[in-house]
Amino acid sequence: MKSIVKNISLTAGLLIFLLISSCTNSYEQMINNFNENYFTLTPTPAKESNLLDKDFDQEQMLEIRYTFIEGFNSSLVAPKGAAKYLWVEENLEDGQVQKKTLCNERIYAFLPENDFEVNKESKLVLTVTDEKGTEYIDTTIIVVLNRR
Prior knowledge:
This protein is of the alpha+beta class. It has helices at residues 2-21, 27-38, 112-115; strands spanning 65-69, 74-77, 84-93, 96-103, 107-110, 121-129, 135-145. Strands 1-7-6-3-4 form a five-stranded mixed β-sheet. It has a two-stranded antiparallel sheet with strand order 2-5. Strand 3 and strand 4 form a beta hairpin.
């Protein structure tokens, strides 16, 4: 019985040794191979939407939520092809909707803490108007974090 256990132990040890010694990749090489297969190192260019695109959807002008860091310049971009752009912050205060116009340009460049309260959710509304006067509206939530 002892010889059977000894033989099984030796065989198991030999198999484990062969299994480990057959791995030719280092841990770092395995991670690099995984990253190369599933991630790209080059940034993907942003897809710019246009009001004239046949698949244009006003509900996709903005993401559902944006998080910005206090002290870092930031920007949001509206679709091309509009006659007018309007970025407005809307907040509920004392049961009343308070609106503050932030920008009338296609690209809204800002320092987050100047336009939005830090560590609080704010509602941002983008209204894009085409040459015919048709308005396209999308909303998002803005959060500015204090990371200092």
